[in-house]
Specification:
The protein is an alpha/beta fold. It has 13 helices and 30 strands. The strands form seven sheets. The chain has a six-stranded antiparallel β-sheet. The chain is globular and about 75 Å long.
Length: 467
């Protein structure tokens, strides 16, 4: 079997304000209701592939689980990284996990934030490269370039028409003149960061080229332990790992690297201008997501999360409106969104880190409004799930059920609330919620008090669910 390993730990700050630290670009459902992460998982939900190994941030664990469940997809393992350490350490971890399951296993390493429109072409190329990987080669997939793009690294391959060819050189991101020369030369492909290799071959490569990292990763893997559907790693040991890409750590040092060129209509969607380039457009080149309108405008992008967005008399402009932030920029300045994000982060602005919707093991909460001494949020509790038994030192709460039936317990008294019914939770009262039914419960929660942050929670024995 080929074990796909999906790397999902990135942030994607250039897609702010939709992409944020707690819900980065790979989890945004902007492609027909699906996210790039879901599309990547479905891409390898195919005969010949095992269930994927997923390696992502601990902060995104509930998002990963939720999006797998939405597509009814399984995973071999979900490893949670305590901190980000680039792509080399997770590559070795995936090889170790696959080798434990099958000493002859192959690993297909995939970023979770790429769009591939011709998935059958990509999968066919993977199978054509399988023999080379089983024979001990490290296979990298090179995207046949369609333009002189300066945002990607390049790979120079030997001439020929074989499906897998030797690699002559890895090339850093070029300036425009060199990119144009690469395109004209015809022997250069974009480095997509997608790899196929024998698990044992990759383990041996780390032993040969990165022996210290091999020992450190092996120590981290010994620390792993299961937690519900996830595999946790020791934070202290993980933080000692080198922060380095698989390209620098192995691929540029090994002498058994080959390349499989492929043209699957691939895009690394790293900016809003890149998103615009792949979306459907009207007759004037405008793309809209959500409730959007265009008048006398050309080649514009508009995204509306909750409100109506109208674009009038503009050209090459992007308008991205979420429930708490609005971005307006020229498409030529799409890369500068990252600069704004860095400035906001330096100011400590929550709009960089926190999305209004926050996922939990039992469902999610979503901010509606907040002010001095009050906050309002919606809540969804999944069937069979519940919150921890808890109390608050600084706030009281009012609950209103919008749909469904929820079991509530306040200071030991349990009763049912149904649609349009409400309950009051006094300050300091021990309370919990459970959805014993078959459909999701939708609620509104109004908080009032002197301190309304999420760290004002005292947990009590009684349930293992998290708030």
């Amino acid at each position: 079997m080929i074990f796909p390993c999906i790397l999902s730990g990135g942030v994607g700050s250039r897609l702010w304000p939709l992409s944020r630290t707690d819900r980065p670009k790979q989890f945004l459902p902007i492609f027909g209701g699906e996210s790039l992460f879901q599309k990547t998982c479905k891409r390898v939900d195919h005969p010949g592939f095992a269930a994927p190994i997923i390696i992502g941030s601990n902060n995104h664990r509930f998002l990963i689980g939720e999006q797998l469940a939405e597509q009814d997809l399984e995973s071999s393992a979900i490893l949670l990284e305590p901190v980000g350490r680039n792509t080399a350490p997770p590559t070795l971890m995936a090889a170790m996990i696959a080798a434990e399951a099958d000493p002859e296993a192959l690993v297909l390493l995939l970023p979770s934030d790429h769009l591939i429109r011709k998935e059958d072409v990509f999968v066919d190329t993977v199978f054509k490269a399988e023999e080379a990987a089983r024979n001990g080669s490290l296979v990298t997939f090179g995207i046949t370039p369609k333009e002189p793009n300066t945002g990607y690294g390049y790979i120079k391959v030997t001439d020929g028409s074989a499906p897998v060819r030797p690699v002559e050189a890895f090339v850093e991101k070029p300036d425009l003149a060199r990119a144009e020369a690469f395109l004209k030369d015809g022997s250069y492909v974009w480095n997509a960061g997608i790899f196929l290799f024998s698990a044992q071959t990759m383990i041996d490569a780390f032993k040969a080229h990165q022996p210290a990292m091999y020992k450190d990763v092996a120590a981290v893997m010994k620390s792993r332990h299961s937690d519900l559907d996830f595999v946790r790693l020791d934070r202290e040991a993980f933080e000692k790992l080198a922060d380095i890409s698989i390209d620098y750590a192995i691929m540029e040092k090994a002498d058994n690297v080959v390349c499989a060129p492929v043209a699957p209509e691939w895009d690394d969607l790293g900016s809003w201008s890149a998103i615009w380039s792949v979306l459907d457009k009207d007759g004037d080149g405008n793309s809209g997501l959500g409730d959007t309108r265009f008048l006398d405008s050309r080649d514009c992008l508009a995204y509306a999360e909750r409100c109506l967005v109208s674009v009038i008399g503009l050209e090459d402009v992007m308008v991205i409106a979420t429930s708490d932030s609005v971005l307006v920029a020229h498409k030529d300045r799409a890369q500068d969104v990252k600069t704004v994000v860095e400035e906001l982060k330096a100011e400590g602005r929550k709009e960089v880190e926190l999305h209004p919707r926050s996922y939990r093991p039992w469902g999610y909460t979503e901010r509606i409004n907040a002010g001095d001494r009050f906050a309002v949020q919606s809540m969804m509790i999944k069937p069979g799930k519940g919150l921890s038994l808890q109390s608050h030192l600084h706030r009281a709460e009012h609950w209103v059920v919008v749909s469904g039936t929820v079991e509530i317990t306040i200071n030991g008294q349990t009763r049912l609330l149904t649609e349009n019914q409400s309950a009051y939770v006094p300050l300091g009262a021990q309370h919990t919620l459970h959805n014993r039914g078959k459909i999701p419960v939708q609620m509104i929660e109004v908080q009032s008090g002197t301190y309304l942050q999420e760290d004002d929670i005292v947990r009590h024995a009684g349930t293992s669910q998290q708030s």
